[in-house]
From TrEMBL:
Its main location: membrane. The chain crosses the membrane at residues 7-27, 65-84, 96-117, 132-151, 184-212, 232-252, 291-313, 352-371, 383-410, 422-444, 473-495, 523-544. GO terms for cellular component: plasma membrane. This is Thiamine ABC transporter, transmembrane component. PROSITE patterns: ABC_TM1.
Length: 555
């Protein structure tokens, strides 16, 4: 009985938190758009869905997400082969480099591409600044590392004997890869593609910085309708449209992930990797597959490094000379663009990120513990599957919808939190909780249930089994969970742009304000502040990577 109560609390407490601070604000905002004079009015659907601009926005969302996903997957699979199936000097450094863009705040990615593609930038001659191709390129830059990691960590541990058997029967390396290895990787590739599509379809700050209203996506249009026009009806309809798209992406991702977990026979990574062969040596011919994949990967890695290097260089230049002027100006409020200095905003971001990380880790690890169970009944398994999908929803639902929903839902007793300092950490924790779950859950699911059964047979109670069997392995994944939560909180912009107080802005909000003000001084400060934010996030994730558990390949 006590065990049942404990598991009941473990389920109900996170669900109550998500219901109060996610479902309730989102439902309140969506409901406001469909209620007129206290009565249900669904005429907004016909009005909004009949407007040409709505379909133009939907087309921009789907087209940029589809193109970004296809290109990221096509380029990411060769990268996964080189970085996870082959060994070469400096492989760890290259892995870290391609992983940096995914953990960077989207505001920083937007600033980096503006610095690269602006008329005065290295690629300004291409005329791509504020164009659709620039947005797609930035989305690929942002998600390339995700594809490489999700596919690569499976490929690294894929049993090589099946491919070796095909080679022994006369198949060339390329044919063996296409007919044996690639089909085995389809579940991992599909899972990565579904998540990339999800991130591309819900991109906000990146599209806002690079495209503005001209190439507005559903996410950007929700922001424009709520902040510029106060049109809750249009925002509500668009939120419903986005929920449908997100729901479909999550269903595909969940099925692909379950297929990967069931279908693959994995081995230790050291058994599946081999040296990268690019030249003839020791009597062995260079592998055409290695040469082709390495060439594609090298070109992509160079393109990944270019925006970051350009942003850094331009933050150190002023009037054609090298200077630290923009960094010195971070102690000021700029050219009347800010209410606080950038360093004060940085301190605010760090304090808020600590609070959000604590909330996300406590809720996320509790949910991961529940989701790792293996119920004997089909009903129990279906219930856990539904809970897994619900937990992932905050990752795909518009952060703008969540933020504005907070303002209109939590503004009266007993939940009058509109002026409270806890509102921003809670909103940021909503985005971080799914990532914490994804970081911890694979480790818990990998535990052999016979270990728990043996501990129970020896007289250990349920609590002691959790502490002695699950506990040590969970602690191994704690570093990665904390790193993801802290990095996401530092870079969150969508909900924070609604909720942060003028006297307590976060660093991404300050960067966006600087970009919106004319003047080379403000733009230079935005570049310098973006470099500071990128270094902070990179340091957090580098530390977390050193603490991640062996064999953990989930995101």
């Amino acid at each position: 009985m006590g065990r049942g109560v404990a598991w009941g609390l473990a389920v109900m407490m996170p669900l109550a938190f998500l219901g109060l601070f996610f479902a309730y604000p989102v439902a309140t905002l969506v409901g406001r758009g469909f209620v007129t004079d206290g009565a249900l009015d669904l005429g907004g659907f016909a009005e909004v869905l009949g407007a040409p601009r709505t379909w133009r926005v939907v087309w921009h969302t789907l087209s940029q997400a589809a193109l970004g996903t296809v290109i990221a997957v096509v380029l990411g699979v060769p990268g996964a082969y080189v970085l996870y199936r082959r060994t070469f000097p400096g492989r760890r450094v290259v892995r870290a480099l391609v992983a940096v863009p995914f953990v960077l705040p989207s505001v920083v990615v937007g600033v980096a591409f503006r610095a690269l593609l602006a008329p005065s930038g290295p690629l300004g001659f291409l005329g791509l600044d504020r164009t659709f191709p620039a947005i797609v390129a930035a989305l690929v830059f942002f998600n390339y590392g995700l594809v490489v990691r999700m596919v690569g960590t499976v490929w690294e541990r894929l049993d090589p004997r099946t491919e070796q058997a095909a080679r022994a029967l006369g198949a060339s390396p390329l044919r063996a890869a296409l007919t044996v290895t690639l089909p085995a990787l389809v579940p991992a590739i599909a899972s990565a593609a579904a998540l990339v599509f999800l991130f591309c379809a819900t991109a906000f700050a990146l599209v806002l910085v690079l495209g503005g209203s001209r190439y507005a996506t559903v996410e950007v249009e929700i922001w424009l309708q709520t902040t510029q026009f106060l049109d809750l009806r249009t925002a509500s309809v668009l939120s419903v449209v986005q929920l449908v798209v997100v729901g479909l992406a999550l269903v595909v991702s969940g099925r692909a992930r379950r297929g990967r977990e069931r279908a693959l026979a994995l081995v230790e990574s050291s058994r599946a990797t081999a040296p990268l062969r690019l030249v003839r040596r020791d009597g062995q011919a260079a592998s055409p597959l290695d040469v082709g994949a390495a060439a594609v990967t090298a070109a992509v890695v160079a393109l990944v490094a270019l925006p970051l290097a350009t942003m850094l260089v331009r933050s150190l230049r002023h009037d054609g000379a090298w200077t630290l002027r923009h960094y010195a100006n971070l102690a000021t409020t700029g050219d009347r663009a800010l209410t606080v200095s950038v360093w004060e905003a940085t301190a605010n971001s760090l304090r808020i990120a600590v609070d959000a990380t604590v909330i996300a880790v406590v809720i996320g690890m509790t949910l991961a513990l529940v989701l790792s169970r293996r119920p004997a009944s089909r009903t129990g398994r279906r219930a856990l599957g539904a809970l897994d999908a619900v937990v992932m929803l905050p990752l795909g639902v518009s952060a703008v919808t969540v933020g504005f929903g907070f303002l209109i839902a939590l503004d009266r007793p007993p939940l009058d939190l509109r002026s409270s300092l806890v509102l921003v950490p809670i909103a940021q924790a909503m985005v971080a909780i799914p990532l914490v779950v994804r970081a911890v859950l694979p480790v818990l699911r990998a535990i052999d249930p016979r270990l728990r059964q043996a501990a129970a047979t020896l007289g250990a109670g349920a609590g002691r089994v959790l502490l002695t069997v699950d506990g040590p392995l969970v602690l191994r994944s704690l570093g990665l969970a904390v790193g993801f939560a802290f990095a996401v909180s530092l870079g969150e912009f969508g909900a924070t742009s609604f909720l942060s107080r003028p006297d307590r802005p976060t660093l991404p909000v300050v960067i966006f304000r600087l970009l919106g003000r004319p003047g080379d001084g403000n733009y230079g400060m935005a570049l310098a502040a973006s470099v500071v934010l990128a270094v902070m996030v990179g340091a957090v994730m580098t530390t977390a990577e050193r603490l991640r558990p062996l064999g953990s390949g989930e995101v």
